[in-house]
Amino acid sequence: MPFGPTVLLTGASGVLGSALLPQLSDCHVIALIHRTPAPGADEQLVGDLTAPRLGLDQAAYQRLASRVDAVVHCAAITGFSSGPEATHALNAAGTRQMVQLAADADAVMYHVSTAFVDRTDLTRAQMGQDHGDATARPEDYLDSKRAGEDVVRSAGIPAVIVRPSVVIGDAATGAISAFQGMHGIIHGLLRGLLPLVPIPADSPVDFVPQDVVAATIAGLIRQGRREGEVWITAGTNALSTDRALEVIAATADELGLDAPRPRMVGPEMVDRLIRPVFIANLHPRARRRFDDMLAMTALFAHGHVFPNSLGQTGLPAALSSSDLESALRASVTYMARAKGMVRPAPTPALETAQVVA
């Protein structure tokens, strides 16, 4: 039976929420859900993150507030194509409602943000570069996450801001509840759809497995941490772009996939030469895919090393480069199999046994 605190968890069916639930087996977890159930939670409560009192009537809201010891706010729009209104409605306005609940419950809030709030100058818009036909707008997402952090900081409640970098699948199995972010780039590489990668070879590609992020959040709750900023990143051990591409290519070879190694070019060459000469005449869908890739990879181009809190007392150990390579291989393999890109191994023909009477 759970003997730890009562935790209200948002985003319980998402990538981080679903990974976090098993880590909170010693807590009583109430999952605030909207449409998608969270079967691993002790309780499920239907509500609306963007509505006053979370869409609950006064009595139900007060009962909830009287029980909650900690609020873990994982719910967010993480895609780059939802538009500024929808992104801010959940990532900023939704955070405001959760802050209010934490205040009413006298609870600690663990707010999941992103390490990329640290990169204010790396979206194409902020570098003065053309979006082209891209639907992806990383700046909308980053602005909304910065706004959410501002809401938490200004609320005057006990709160920990958690900043993971790019989240990939489980370190051992690669399993993940939904493909997002970096998985889209990996998929394009495996299918040979990204002949060019506009990132310098030595730029760090910072990612962390979902189970490491979940274990860190669970550790913070068990510690009773009530303030501060926690960075869940690869830090100085982040793989370079060149090394990450090598790992992906080697994994593709092991899986029997014909995935040509892309050419790395500087982002400035894309706008000066590649788009006007080669991309402008592509089919609109292919052009949009290329521009979406540019928008996402701009976050890594010339990026600096993130701070890293892993290895602190009570938190998981820092990830080594070897750990990261192994986790990347697991994620590539899981996605390739889940997408049906890998043919199942042929079943050996059964030899007919001759029965001698």
Comma- or semicolon-separated keywords:
357 residues, alpha/beta, 7-stranded parallel beta sheet, two-stranded parallel ribbon, 10 helices, 13 strands, 38% helix, 14% strand, globular, disordered C terminus
What does the model show?
Helices cover 38% and strands 14% of the residues. Strands 3-2-1-4-5-6-11 form a 7-stranded parallel beta sheet, sandwiched between helices. Strands 7-10 form a two-stranded parallel ribbon. Helix 3 (84-105) links the parallel strand 4 (70-73) and strand 5 (108-112). The chain has helices at 15-20, 58-67, 84-105, 138-154, 182-190, 210-223, 241-254, 267-279, 284-297, 321-338; strands spanning 6-10, 28-33, 43-46, 70-73, 108-112, 159-164, 166-168, 196-197, 204-205, 207-209, 227-232, 239-240, 263-264. It has 357 residues and is an alpha/beta fold. Helix 7 crosses helix 10.
